[in-house]
Design goal:
Layout lengths: L1 H17 L1 H30 L10 E8 L11 H10 L3 E15 L5 E8 L3 H4 L6 E2 L15 E3 L1 H8 L9 E4 L2 E8 L12 E4 L16 E6 L5 H18 L1 H4 L2 E7 H5 L4 H32 L1 H9 L4 H37 L14 H27 L3 H7 L5 H39 L10 E6 L6 H19 L4 E7 L9 E3 L1 E2 L14 E7 L3 H5 L3 E4 L13 E5 H7 L9 E3 L8 E7 L14 E5 L11 E6 L7 H11 L5 E5 H6 L3 H35 L1 H9 L4 H30 L15 H26 L4 H7 L1
Parallel strand pairs: 3-8, 5-7, 15-20, 17-19
Antiparallel strand pairs: 1-9, 1-10, 2-3, 2-6, 2-9, 4-7, 5-8, 6-7, 11-21, 11-22, 12-21, 13-15, 14-18, 16-19, 17-20, 18-19
Length: 806
């Protein structure tokens, strides 16, 4: 048996060398399908399938609020609820809350941005990880209102302390507080969100003790004997008790426990599986094309197979030889596909949204290699089996008498090839319809009027060191100074500052109108609004129209009566038909004071174009100094805003060297909101285009084969007086009949499968008739082009030559 296999391999190699054009074409077709599948699978494997890099990762869970009224879990929880979960449940070996942000860190002479996280005592135990040098926080360092301490990441230790053990005991300045470094975490641990520094919660900053203030994220490690369902049951029971004890804040509030890996990939899982399904269809189309090529090759080898049968070769022996050739082609295609996948996976990482977790780890590893090997073998069986079986059914006498070109197997193969082409067209229509729907949705999203003008705006993010009200009020001078100095720069048309530029939401909560709420009135069921802190002139700089009243002024200071500006959506909901100016609002954001409404501005799409405008409440930064210490300076320019970066960097350093800065444009920031739809539309469009090209290559191949098989018939027709036009119509009719059948089946399949895209579409229905009409027209045109060349060749058949060959 091994000797026969080696003989088959040698014969297959000789056969492929004798037909270099066929071999190259076959390898290219299959390499495209295998390479695309391997590239997408490398990302799916890294993001969805690979376990988290922690001990017993399946026991690490997130714990979040779940409203009984429906909707997705609200990730953030209140500190009092967390402490009750911690103290009154027995399901967790460790459970902790954390909050993270980006702020000013100074480890040397210059301040810079760094990611920090405040964590409760059991945080590192959740991940079963200890510092590589030093120690975790002591009990004294975690006491409320203590001076705290710092544990830094391995990367921060290397970049700022050159990996020197002497970093222990040194200090890092965070805001206006100095923290002593007591430990360094091992390489690779930077949870959450690439953290540089961890410090104990409820030390430098007191935790929020209101049950209606959901400010923290919770992670836990289940005990070995406790399942996730058991932990959820415990917490749901506890949540029901808390709901009875605290109805104002905990009404309709329950709890959901989720594996941390599932929570991390929740927003990208569907997109990645969609892409994996799309490339699987591309691979099927490539296999169908390869089967067509092998059927054509088998037809030309009919006489050879007949001779081998005549001298004693069994049908099984012939099938095995042909399957061996298919396996060899699969091996070559898999190797070429792997090279394409190396480039393709890198390209996917570059164009993928930034919110995809563990994307940077995507690459070719053992799992991906095993996947490539598996799909190569499966593909070889898919495209090699049918041709091998057809070829083995040769009619010995007829084949030897009539020769390869007119063998009976050619007729059987012709029917199979036609069926494969119909399948190719149908699959390509499904992909093309899906890509068309996503592209139309993406275009509709980009055409939404956002309510502001994002062009020519540079955002300079800043973080003024401050940890209390007084230092924050003093820090407010930075924004007054930097705004006045930047306004004097030539080319700057307007400048201001805001805590949250449009396109993102960082704070929201309840509000009441015209009075301070009494006991039981200010609850989670109260009307909700987005809270935004900004400086005077921000609306003009952003191009948000002032509809009534006035803008904020420098006189709206901390000691002055508190003021607020609302958007039109809040005015409609809270003051339907009334003039909101002069009314009072209470929101409990960071002060119990009532705020008088002094202006109304136009609505904006704060969370991106796919989300409708929501009620928004604007507050002046001087009256909310702690919240106004991390703002983005808005600089509208007359020309390219990027050219202003170095000038602004120097200005900011001159005003305060302790304030770190970083830059982006508002357009680039807004592009992040559409990153996932763009990613889906681009990749599905690429895969659909590839599928159409492969399918049309199949149409061309079949029609060219048909013309060759019917050359005698065509010659006879022309000898009897048929015109070139009638011959062309004959060939085109046959080709377009196959295309029409494939198109019909594809449209039916697209109508069924496109329902899976419903949640991904914006202002487009899954059964959008315009998209299907365009797809049908495009396929018709491309199919006509694919049939035209063989049809044109048929009109040049020489009747005498064709009849002589017959």
């Amino acid at each position: 048996m091994p000797q026969n296999f080696i003989t088959d391999i040698r014969y297959a190699l000789r056969s492929l060398r004798k037909n270099p054009g066929f071999t190259v074409l076959a390898v290219v077709v299959m390499a495209l399908g295998i390479g695309a599948n391997t590239a997408v699978f490398s990302v799916v494997n890294s993001v969805l399938l690979r376990p988290l890099d922690y001990r017993d990762p399946d026991r690490i869970v997130t714990v979040a609020n779940q409203w009984k009224t429906g909707g997705a879990p609200q990730g953030q929880v209140s500190a009092p609820d967390f402490h009750d979960w911690h103290d009154q449940t027995s399901a967790f070996a460790a459970i902790a809350y954390y909050s993270n942000t980006e702020t000013s860190l100074t480890a040397g002479s210059a301040a810079e941005y760094g990611r920090i996280a405040s964590v409760t005592p059991e945080f590192f135990r959740v991940f079963a990880v200890d510092p590589v040098i030093g120690r975790p926080f002591s009990a004294d360092e975690m006491r409320p209102a203590s001076a705290g301490a710092a544990v830094i990441s391995y990367g921060y230790w290397q970049s700022h302390f050159q990996g020197n053990a002497g970093a222990l005991g040194r200090t890092v300045r965070m805001s206006d507080k100095s923290l002593t470094i007591v430990g360094v975490m091992p390489p690779g641990f930077q949870f959450p969100d690439q953290t540089d520094l961890w410090y104990p919660a409820n030390t430098l900053f007191a935790e929020t003790n209101q049950r209606s203030s959901h400010n923290y994220l919770v992670v836990g490690r289940l005990k070995p004997e406790v399942s996730r369902e058991q932990a959820q049951a415990q917490l749901v029971s506890l949540a029901a008790r808390l709901e009875k004890l605290y109805p104002d804040s905990n009404r309709n509030k329950s709890v959901v426990v989720t594996r941390m890996i599932d929570e991390q990939v929740r927003d990208v899982r569907t997109t990645l599986y969609l892409l994996l399904g799309a490339v699987a269809l591309v691979l099927l189309i490539a296999c169908a094309n390869m089967a067509n090529l092998l059927l054509a090759k088998a037809t030309s080898r009919t006489r050879e197979i007949a001779i081998r049968t005549a001298i004693g070769a069994s049908r099984a022996r012939i099938v095995r030889q042909l399957i061996t050739e298919s396996l060899l082609l699969a091996a070559l295609s898999g190797a070429a596909g792997l090279l394409l996948a190396l480039w393709g996976s890198s390209a996917l990482v570059l164009i993928a949204p930034h919110n995809v977790p563990r994307l940077a780890d995507a690459g070719i590893d053992r799992t991906v290699l095993a996947f490539t090997f598996s799909i190569s073998v499966i593909a070889s069986l898919l495209f090699g089996l049918a041709p091998a079986v057809h070829a083995s059914k040769v009619d010995l006498i007829d084949a030897l008498k009539r020769g390869a070109a007119r063998a009976v197997v050619g007729a059987r193969a012709g029917r199979t090839r036609a069926a494969l082409v119909v399948a190719e067209i149908a699959l390509s229509v499904i992909l093309l319809a899906g890509a068309g729907l996503l592209m139309k949705s993406f275009v509709a999203m980009n055409n939404v009027a956002l309510g502001f003008r994002p062009d020519n705006i540079l955002l300079m993010s800043t973080s003024v060191p401050a940890t209390d009200i007084e230092s924050a009020r003093r820090g407010g001078r930075f924004y007054r100074d930097i705004v006045s100095q930047v306004a004097a720069i030539p080319g700057v048309t307007s400048v201001s500052a805001t805590r949250t530029p449009p396109g993102r939401i960082t704070s929201n909560g309840a509000y009441v109108v015209d009075h301070v709420p009494g006991q039981g009135e200010f609850t989670v069921a109260s009307p909700q609004a987005i809270f935004t802190i900004l400086a005077p002139g921000a609306f003009a700089a952003l191009g948000i129209p002032l509809k009534a009243g006035r803008d904020f002024q420098e006189s709206d200071a901390y000691d002055a009566p508190f003021t607020a500006i609302i958007n039109e959506e809040l005015a409609r909901r809270a003051f339907a038909g009334q003039n909101p100016l002069g009314h009072l609002l209470y929101c409990g954001f960071d002060s119990p004071k009532l705020m008088r409404i002094v202006g109304v501005v136009g609505d904006t799409h704060q969370a991106g174009p796919a989300q409708p405008a929501r009620p928004e409440l604007f507050m002046p930064y001087q009256q909310h100094p702690r919240a106004g210490m991390s703002m983005s300076v808005i600089v509208r320019t007359a020309s390219d805003p990027i050219a202003m970066i170095e000038t602004l960097r120097r200005k900011a350093h001159d005003v305060s060297p302790d304030v770190p800065v970083k830059f982006t444009t508002l357009e680039a920031r807004l592009a992040e909101n559409a990153a996932t739809p763009r990613f889906r539309a681009i990749l599905l469009g690429i895969f659909a285009a590839l599928a159409v090209c492969l399918a049309m290559a199949g149409v061309y191949g079949v029609m060219a084969y048909v013309v060759g098989q019917r050359s005698g018939e065509i010659g006879l027709r022309m000898a009897l007086g048929a015109t070139p036009g009638s011959v062309m119509r004959l060939v085109l009719k046959q080709g377009l009949t196959l295309a029409a059948l494939g198109l019909l089946l594809g449209l039916l399949g697209a109508a069924a499968t496109s329902q899976l895209l419903t949640r991904m579409l914006f202002q487009v229905k899954a059964a959008d008739p315009a998209t299907y009409a365009v797809v049908a027209l495009l396929l018709a045109v491309v199919a006509l082009a694919a049939c035209w060349l063989p049809a044109r060749r048929a009109t040049h058949v020489d009747p005498l030559t064709a009849l002589r060959e017959e």
